[in-house]
Amino acid sequence: MLYIIPTCANKNKEHNNKLKRKALVLKNEGFTQKEIGEILGRTQSTISSWLSNM
Fold it and tell me: Model's pTM, two decimal places?
């Protein structure tokens, strides 16, 4: 069974939130979802999901 230590989970959430904010900044600067994904190390579909939920 896998146990996640709450402090680690919170750090992961904080990191993902920073990436999501960076994705929005890059979008506003004119980058495509594919380019944003390459910059942030995520797939285009992940970036699309993030941006559609903002």
Answer: 0.79
